[in-house]
């Protein structure tokens, strides 16, 4: 990897880090979703700064080519993100269902209260 490409990748990662940090600061992104991206950015900066490290790790894991290691890590990272989003979606679905049920019960109670109040007036 050329020095120019290393610098470009590091600048892009720093820009991504700034964007994500601002999103957390403005509360448009929760910390629990920020941390995996932060970890990925740090790892990419380290691997970009020290490309020989990727060769050592891929050789240790028995992966033929460092580029295959990058694709494998990207695939695993994508699976982790998808899994965490599936868990969050499931929790939200349960919370929405529970809130809808509570709202229906409250509305039913209000309607029953109105009917009882109207029958007491007559």
Describe the protein.
This protein is 89% helix and 0% strand. It has four helices and no strands. By secondary structure, it is mostly helical. It has helices spanning 3-25, 31-49, 51-61, 66-121. It folds into two domains: 1-49; 67-122.
Summarize the amount of helix as a percent range. over 70%
Cα gyration radius (Å): 26 Å
Report the total helices: 4
The N- to C-terminal Cα distance equals 87 Å
**Overall spatial form:** elongated
Q: What is the tally of beta strands?
A: 0
Mean pLDDT: 88
Going by helix content, strand content and strand pairing, the class is: mainly alpha
How large is the share of residues in beta strands? under 5%
Tell me about the largest β-sheet: none
Order of helices and strands: HHHH
Question: Low-confidence segments, ≥5 residues, pLDDT <50?
Answer: none
Number of domains: 2
List the helices and strands and how they pair.
Layout: H1 3-25, H2 31-49, H3 51-61, H4 66-121
Helix pairs in contact: 1-2, 2-3, 3-4
């Amino acid at each position: 990897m050329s020095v120019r490409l290393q610098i470009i990748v590091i600048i892009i990662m720093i820009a991504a880090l700034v964007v994500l940090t601002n999103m957390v600061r403005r509360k448009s992104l929760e910390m629990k979703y920020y941390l995996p991206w932060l970890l990925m950015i740090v790892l990419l900066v380290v691997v970009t700064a020290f490309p020989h490290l990727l060769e050592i790790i891929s050789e240790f894991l028995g992966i033929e080519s460092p580029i295959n290691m990058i694709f494998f890590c990207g695939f695993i990272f994508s699976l982790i993100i998808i899994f965490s989003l599936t868990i969050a979606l499931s929790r939200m679905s349960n919370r929405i269902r529970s809130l809808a049920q509570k709202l229906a019960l409250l509305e039913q109670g209000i309607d029953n209260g109105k009917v009882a109040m109207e029958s007491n007036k007559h």
